[in-house]
């Protein structure tokens, strides 16, 4: 590579920015620091990125740290690229669990969270694109844990419906610690969704305990009870033994009820009797129907 001494420095700032961009790509720290001027902080290259964003883009921590030290104003962090992303937005959108360094440092440096502007894409950033530490930092800085997308889905519910992220158990627990709402716009609660979407036993039990601790009385769909019975989950027993009014969010059919009784089968089983007690109207209907036949 040509040394700095043999380089002819370009006159126009646009060409300087392009040369600095090349230096970032090549990780040529020495050339970059000799050529760089603080007046270039706000300049964009031909691709529409600032030099700080380019350092993030190419995962150049040393140059990223250097550029942060050269900032003349915190507003320099808020310059947007051609996609409308600030440095923080770009870092969160494009770097995941394996590299949260840039987003964490930018948050610490006071980069704007732009809560209103983030609403439409919040779930993608908070749930899927950002790492555990970034999520925690965003929540600690005041991002609303219950912000909803256009379908009314919160970050907690999205994590349950689409468990694609690493450390999903820890992420869900974090959302709960920050006061995540347990119910969606259609009346489903987080515990029911955890069961239906086959979340881990840890998540199911956590949400069960949290639901019954915070929201009493609580309705649980019959389908949830049936799934837990099929799985022989210990939560099935806990639900039946819970000393709260047990209600069904959906109407049971005789077939559903018969299937549950068939799973239990043994009339001597205490849970057989508990199901009959909890589902008194259906039990009476089923019993009457059986006698008539």
UniProtKB/TrEMBL annotation:
GO terms for cellular component: nucleus. SMART domains: ANK. SUPFAM superfamilies: Ankyrin repeat (SSF48403). InterPro entries: Ankyrin_rpt (IPR002110), Ankyrin_rpt-contain_sf (IPR036770). GO terms for biological process: regulation of apoptotic process. This is Uncharacterized protein. It comes from Zophobas morio.
């Amino acid at each position: 590579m040509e040394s700095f001494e043999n380089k002819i420095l370009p006159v126009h700032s646009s060409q300087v920015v392009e040369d600095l961009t090349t230096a970032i790509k090549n990780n040529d720290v020495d050339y970059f620091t000799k050529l760089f001027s603080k007046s270039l902080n706000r300049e964009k290259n031909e691709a529409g990125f600032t030099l700080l964003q380019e350092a993030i883009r190419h995962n150049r921590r040393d140059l990223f740290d250097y550029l942060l030290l050269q900032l003349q104003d915190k507003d320099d962090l808020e310059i947007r690229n051609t996609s409308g992303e600030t440095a923080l937005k770009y870092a969160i959108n494009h770097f995941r669990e394996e590299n949260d360094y840039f987003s964490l440092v930018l948050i610490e440096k006071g980069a704007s969270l732009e809560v209103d502007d983030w609403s439409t894409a919040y779930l993608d950033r908070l749930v899927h694109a950002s790492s555990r530490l970034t999520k925690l930092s965003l929540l600690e800085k005041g991002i609303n844990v219950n912000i909803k997308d256009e379908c009314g889905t919160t970050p907690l519910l999205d994590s349950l419906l689409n468990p694609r992220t690493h450390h999903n158990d820890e992420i869900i627990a974090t959302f709960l610690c920050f006061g995540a709402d347990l119910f969606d716009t259609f009346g489903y609660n987080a515990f029911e969704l955890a069961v239906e979407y086959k979340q881990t036993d840890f998540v199911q039990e956590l949400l069960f305990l949290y639901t019954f601790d915070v929201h009493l009385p609580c309705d649980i769909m019959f389908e949830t009870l049936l799934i837990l019975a099929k799985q022989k989950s210990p939560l099935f027993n806990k639900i039946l033994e819970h000393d709260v009014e047990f209600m069904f969010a959906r109407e049971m059919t005789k077939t559903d009820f018969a299937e549950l009784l068939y799973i239990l089968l043994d009339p001597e089983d205490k849970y057989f009797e508990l199901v009959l007690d909890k589902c008194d109207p259906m039990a009476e209907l089923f019993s009457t129907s059986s006698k008539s036949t």
